[in-house]
Amino acid sequence: MPLIQRLAIIGVGLIGGSLARILREKGAVVEIVGIGRGEANLRKAVELGVIDRYSLDPVAGVEGADLVFLATPVCSIIDMVARIAPALAPGCVVTDGGSVKGEIVAPCEKLLPPGTFFVGGHPIAGTEKSGVEASFAALYQGKRCILTPTAQTDGEALRKVVRMWELAGSEVVCMDVEKHDRVVAAISHLPHMVAYSLVNAVGGYDRFSENILKYSAGGFRDFTRIASSDPAMWRDIALMNREAVLEMMDFFSEYFAGLRNLVEKGDGHGLEAFFARSKQNRDAIS
Ligand SMILES: NC(=O)c1ccc[n+]([C@@H]2O[C@H](COP(=O)([O-])OP(=O)(O)OC[C@H]3O[C@@H](n4cnc5c(N)ncnc54)[C@H](O)[C@@H]3O)[C@@H](O)[C@H]2O)c1
Ligand SMILES: O=C(O)C(=O)C[C@]1(C(=O)O)C=C[C@@H](O)C=C1
């Protein structure tokens, strides 16, 4: 029997659309209902075979669903859960793919009526592209998905969400929301803040009368791919994971200041040691 009978996906973009595609490919779901604000995107999702039907009304859209997946920008998730909560079928499992967990999980658990269950989640996989047309079935293959169960989390609901991500090809890792938000601030949110700043700095460099970004090659382009990511999504992440992002930005600044100091002093040994330590760490990432 398929794992999910009726899957409701709220926000059928890169993350929601990719999950729909892989679960359908694996025969893990009977029916997929898309929910969103933009009718053109939802119509496209039906045309592409990503969802079976759609609703612009979240309350109507979640009717009879045994699993609801929220994949809208993080600042909208709590309001969305509040809207759908009274309409959920008994036994329904609600989970999300939002990039921040600390401010989301506890309020969502409180909002759900008895007999329905929330499990916080975050696939550590993505691209700089948005929308259903950017979605693809292999997105989660060989990647990690972090789930953030709490003392309130129902065991059966957690097992269903774990199985869903395993079917999508991911290795599931569980951690508490605090650790999740600190880890992703370091490995995901800081790099985006640095990439956005770098592109703005170089794009704003005014020593020459022409824009020098056109001369950029592999180094700049590889490093800054993620600066093309959706601004509204990253606004929400910076607002919602504020404290951990600020901590990482300050921590990073210390390293950047240290490097600046080595350059200023003309400390060749220090520079080589700094770069060698970095190369060793980078080469060791599997
Ligand atoms: N893009 C990534 O690399 C990535 C990776 C992991 C997790 N995430 C998280 O997944 C979520 C979705 O990101 P995405 O990349 O799929 O974005 P996306 O823009 O591709 O898709 C989001 C969809 O949600 C819809 N939407 C936005 N606000 C809405 C609202 N208030 N009500 C209903 N629909 C709404 C949009 O129209 C769009 O169709 C975000 O929470 C993000 O933090 C993103
Ligand atoms: O590969 C990318 O483009 C991504 O930005 C994906 C990425 C990341 O690795 O930082 C971005 C946000 C997430 O919440 C998870 C993954």
TrEMBL record:
Its EC number is 1.3.1.12. It catalyses: prephenate + NAD(+) = 3-(4-hydroxyphenyl)pyruvate + CO2 + NADH. This is prephenate dehydrogenase. InterPro entries: 6-PGluconate_DH-like_C_sf, NAD(P)-bd_dom_sf, PDH_C, PDH_N, Preph/Arog_dehydrog, Prephen_DH. Keywords: Amino-acid biosynthesis, Aromatic amino acid biosynthesis, NAD, Oxidoreductase, Tyrosine biosynthesis. It holds the Pfam family PDH_C. It comes from Geotalea uraniireducens (strain Rf4) (Geobacter uraniireducens). Pathway: Amino-acid biosynthesis; L-tyrosine biosynthesis; (4-hydroxyphenyl)pyruvate from prephenate (NAD(+) route): step 1/1. PANTHER family: PREPHENATE DEHYDROGENASE (PTHR21363), PREPHENATE DEHYDROGENASE [NADP(+)] (PTHR21363:SF0). Belongs to the prephenate/arogenate dehydrogenase family.
